[in-house]
Amino acid sequence: MTERFDDSDMKIVGRREPRAEAGETLKFMEYTSREHFNGNFRKARALGANIVSAFSYTAAPEELVAFIKEHGVEPTPALIRQVRFLSVFSAQYAIENYLPSQLLSSVAIGELYDTLRLYSSDFYEDLAKSGAFSFYNMTLSSMTDLSEAVGRQFAALNGRPDDPALASLGRELHELNLKVFRKAINGYAFV
After folding, report:
1. Cα(106)–Cα(95) distance, integer angstroms
2. Exposure of 187 by Cβ count < 10 A (0-12 exposed, 13-18 middle, 19+ buried)?
3. 190 closest CA partner among 89, 112, 102
4. Whole-model pTM over 0.90
């Protein structure tokens, strides 16, 4: 027969005090209620859904093709694919950095991907299978100018890492995307 040990004086490591946890939960509930009732959740979802139009095209818009050609680059299907990937990265970057909170950013990004999957499932699957985001995300920790780093990564993803025309195109596309997406975000007037 085994002996019974009295372990009533033992503490469980890592256990939080119930009051602290309840306080954090209450603050979060108040915050989410406030964001719901002031319309910010609705705005974040609408932003995420609407921003998809910037890269859900099946044929590249004429002005985009002209912009690419102005840089001395041929707008091949492979290049347009990378332009679209860069646009999604730029949209996510803008949402994460220009919305007033991480929670609203998460709502908008979730809606962006849900909408993209619904209306452009082939592109969504292609994006999900590509490694482009991993490479672009590595540029975020770059100590150099972010747009320059994104441009260099764009050139590398197009198979020509030392091509200054591709790097310039990638940099300018990212900067242009950020301006457009920031304007769109500001248009929603988050409170």
Report:
1. 9
2. exposed
3. 102
4. no
